[in-house]
Specification:
heterodimer, A: about 325 residues, alpha+beta, Immunoglobulin-like, Cytochrome Bc1 Complex, Chain D, domain 2, 2 domains, 5-stranded mixed β-sheet, 6 helices, 12 strands, B: about 550 residues, mainly alpha, Cytochrome C Oxidase, Chain A, about 0% strand, globular
Chain lengths: ~325, ~550
């Protein structure tokens, strides 16, 4: 964790980009506030009232001046807008090869799971130099996953998935905060991100309490245990559609519209299947809202994604 | 000053509790509001004191977590809804709008009194909620915490705000109708003082925005009480919808707080520089532009909420654009000083302080409107610092400047200038020491609404708390000397500052009917080239 300083450490690939914009804006702010404050102080002294009955002459308005001090700041803020938007685009688009970590916020802890199976509470271990994509939700109220050293923050919202990504650039330990007020122990909902050398991370990943069961495999077991498998069978015979290759494609739903079968749609189809049902199927699947934990839903989605193109037996 | 026999004016025309509680005189109602909102300000300030004391150390050693959460919630609720939003409109606006347009009263005097009662009913609900256990949702009431998570008095607090909203709406309605229909002969729209333009723009926002807040509170109550699924995903609702509805009112509400203050600044600067405002049309139009664009930027509170990235792009763009009319005002005020005759009286010091602090508040708003940067600073102390520069450095400085400026008119007494100047300076310095370190600690990553925090943030928090104690002193001084001046202050003449404006052309304090006869306006506002010279009043130092 950082010692007292005036700037946070930079420990991710985007941190320097964010800071560059920050410094530029500080420059803009210093120039404008010194300009305004300087003029005010100068005018206060230069034109200080010396006699009570002074009647300074009126100054004619200059349209040119008004246009200038409207147009110049406008161009400037548009530049800032574009710069901010481009940094934001970087923050929103995770590289395709990013490793996924699932995050579930709850009052008042962070629950994290690596796809290889290892679980953590209030701690996230990641390798240096490899993009990490966080897929996040919340069990109860809104929380926000905030790592100042990485300059990333993303609310975790119950009922939806939100994502964020980072690539750590320096081994070390960094603050993890909850940034969205969430009740009594909001300020206790903190943890740390441990950035490790890749080899050390691999050791860590295969360590633990021996229960490291990959998320997709846990999902496969759950798929069987919950009886999903009795309807979602390979081929067209099942009472539910076979799910291989569905993730990430567009599916046609009742009413003829098509929707992208992303994580959000898969989640909805488990928790509240009748909301947007695939065309040609009866609305007979029970809603699993309240019956599955957020982690279990994430496991099922990981399993569905692992099915690939061809039906497996 | 020549001594006159005691003259009848609005303060001595009648005595007794009844004559105040049943008054329909806009000036007396303004004073009723002054008492109400001052009491609420003191209460909100006490909560702030406790917050700053708790944050003196990184540990939760003064109050427990639940108590702390209630403290910042109640500080926010009181300061935003019960102080800042009504402050200038309900006190200075009530007093000045009829006088500045040369009218005897507002269009609906009884509605005006009703609005004060509604304010107090709302305040009683909210205070009742505090006394019986408080509320801990933050002033933002985010769902599903407020509907399903919190076990505190959400409904009574929200009900208080709901009732209060009608008080704001009635005042705004009164102003709009009065400004349209009751202007003195010759007082055309472009001769109106800029304070009136600011009040007009504010009233438009209030009337259009406040009903949305009422609806939002209603939906929140339906979900919390009847488990109707609107915002809580467990009931089939959408928590982000609440944020959209809440900020659709609450972002424009920032302009409800700041625009009236900008109106005050335009009056004060022109008077103490003895100059016409530079760019009258631009300053007036920028108030209206802010009112319109202010409704289109609410999504900048939600860049990290999970709202669509494209929506965020649009909101970022519009938020950048809304900075322009504010900048135009600052440039025009500064240009007004050029070749003026600048007096350093306390109202002017507050006005110049306003410009400086508002400039910093506005510029740091650009940091928050810039998408990629906001992701880092959102929900940190950077935001806390930014909005205090706008609301306290801006709105409150303007309010205090206005109270000093019109104090002679309102009370017929001068405040002691020799105390007011240092008090203004103390407020300015204390304010900066309180809130500037919060920009730094926010960028370092300290989240807002934290009861305990990592050790490395302590130095900056100690600075902030030290500043707050100076700031507190700065607020206590005016409270004391203004009360003192009611009895011992020098008697004020009709126009001690040599100001233009109709309110200065009638005695101080004004008679109940404001003007002995209806004034006729023959020139633009701020014709300081031939305004009367300011009087060397006793007590002006």
């Amino acid at each position: 964790m950082s010692r007292f300083g005036l700037l946070p450490v930079q420990a991710s690939t985007v941190a320097a980009q964010v800071d560059a914009l920050f410094f530029f804006l500080i420059g803009v702010s210093v120039v404008f506030s010194f300009l305004i404050a300087g003029l005010i102080v100068y005018f206060m002294l230069r034109y200080r009232r010396r006699q009570a009955d002074e009647r300074p002459a009126a100054i004619a308005n200059s349209l040119r001046l008004e246009v200038a001090w409207t147009a110049v700041p406008f161009v400037l803020v548009m530049g800032i807008f574009l710069w901010g938007a481009s940094v934001f685009a970087t923050l929103r688009r995770a590289p395709a090869d990013a490793m996924q970590v699932n995050v579930v916020g709850k009052q008042w802890m962070w629950k994290l799971q690596h796809m290889e199976g290892r679980r953590e509470i209030n701690e996230l271990h990641v390798p240096v130099g490899r993009p990490v994509r966080l897929v996040m939700t919340s069990e109860d109220v809104i929380h926000s996953f905030f790592v100042p050293a990485f300059r990333i923050k993303q609310d975790t919202v119950p009922g939806r998935y939100t994502t964020a990504w980072f690539e750590a650039t320096a081994p070390g330990t960094y603050h993890l905060f909850c940034a969205e007020y969430c009740g009594t122990l909001h300020s206790g909902m903190i943890g740390r991100v441990v950035v490790m050398e890749p080899a050390a991370f691999q050791d860590w990943l295969s360590g633990g309490d021996g229960q490291a069961w990959p998320v997709a495999e846990a999902g496969a077991a759950l798929f069987e245990r919950q009886g999903c498998v009795s309807c979602h069978v390979a081929g067209d015979e099942g009472r539910g559609p076979w799910l291989a290759g569905v993730a990430g494609t567009r599916v046609v739903i009742e009413g003829g519209r098509s929707v992208l079968a992303d994580d959000a749609y898969l989640r909805e189809s488990i928790m509240n299947p009748r909301a947007r049902i695939v065309r040609g199927y009866e609305p007979i699947m029970p809603a699993y809202q309240g019956l599955l934990t957020e982690e279990q839903v994430m496991e099922l989605i990981a399993y569905i994604k692992s099915l690939g193109e061809a039906p497996t037996s | 000053m020549t001594l006159e026999t005691p003259r009848t004016h609005y303060l001595n025309v009648d005595y007794g509790v009844r004559s105040w509680l049943l008054t329909v005189d806009h000036k007396r109602i303004a004073l009723l509001y002054l008492v109400s909102i001052t009491l609420m300000f003191i209460l909100g300030g006490l909560f702030a004191v406790l917050i700053r004391l708790e944050l003196l150390t990184p540990y939760g050693d003064l109050v427990q977590a639940d108590t702390y959460n209630k403290l910042f919630t109640m500080h926010g609720v009181i300061m935003v809804f019960f102080f800042l939003i009504p402050s200038i409109p309900a006190v200075l606006g009530n007093f000045l709008v009829p006088m500045m347009i040369g009218a005897r009263d507002l269009a609906f005097p009884r509605l005006n009194l009703a609005s004060w009662y509604l304010y107090n009913v709302g305040a009683l609900f909210t205070l009742g909620a505090m006394v019986t256990g408080g509320v801990d949702t933050g002033w933002t009431f985010y769902t599903p915490y407020s509907t399903a998570g919190s076990g505190t008095n959400v409904i009574p607090t929200a009900l208080g705000i709901f009732v209060l909203g009608f008080s704001s709406i009635l005042t705004a309605l009164n102003f709009i109708v009065s400004i349209h229909t009751m202007r003195a002969p010759g007082l055309t729209w472009f001769r109106l003082p800029l304070f009136i333009w600011a009040q007009y723009a504010t009233s438009l926002i209030t009337i259009l925005g406040t009903p949305v807040l009422a609806v939002t509170i209603g939906l929140l109550a339906l979900e919390r009480v009847f488990r109707l699924g609107i915002f809580d995903p467990a009931l089939g609702g959408d928590p982000i919808l609440f944020q959209h509805l809440f900020w659709f009112y609450s972002h424009p509400a920032v302009y409800i707080m700041i625009l009236p203050s900008m109106g005050v600044i335009s009056e004060v600067i022109t008077c103490f520089a003895r100059k016409r405002i530079y760019g009258y049309g631009f300053v007036a139009a920028s108030s209206l532009l802010i009112a319109v664009f202010g409704f289109l930027v609410w999504g900048h509170h939600m860049f990290t909420s999970g709202q669509s990235a494209y929506a965020s792009l649009v909101f970022s763009f519009l938020s950048m654009a809304v900075a322009i009319p504010s900048a135009v005002k600052v440039f025009n005020w500064t240009a007004t000083l050029y070749r003026g005759s600048i007096a350093w009286d306390a109202p002017m010091l507050y006005a110049l302080g306003f410009i400086g602090l508002f400039t910093i508040g506005g510029l740091t708003g650009l940091f928050l409107a810039a998408l990629g940067l906001d992701v880092h600073v959102h929900d940190t102390y950077f935001v806390v610092a930014h909005f205090h520069y706008i609301m306290v450095g801006g709105a409150l400085m303007g309010y205090l400047g206005g109270i000093h400026f019109w104090w002679p008119k309102i009370t017929g007494r001068m405040y002691p200038e020799w105390l007011a100047k240092p008090a203004g300076l103390i407020v300015f310095l204390g304010f900066n020491l309180t809130f500037f370190p919060q920009f730094v600690v926010g960028y370092l990553g300290m989240p807002r609404r934290y009861h305990v925090y990592p050790d490395e943030f302590q130095v900056l928090n100690v600075l902030s708390t030290a500043g707050a104690s100076i700031l507190g002193l700065g607020y206590l001084l005016p409270l004391c000397y203004l009360l003192w001046s009611l009895r011992y202050g020098a008697t004020a003449s009709a126009n001690p500052w040599g100001a233009t404006g109709l309110e200065w052309q009638t005695p101080s304090p004004p008679p109940t009917e404001n003007f002995p006869e209806t004034p006729v306006v023959t020139e633009d506002a701020y014709a300081y080239e031939h305004a009367p010279a300011p009087l060397p009043e006793p007590g002006r130092g």
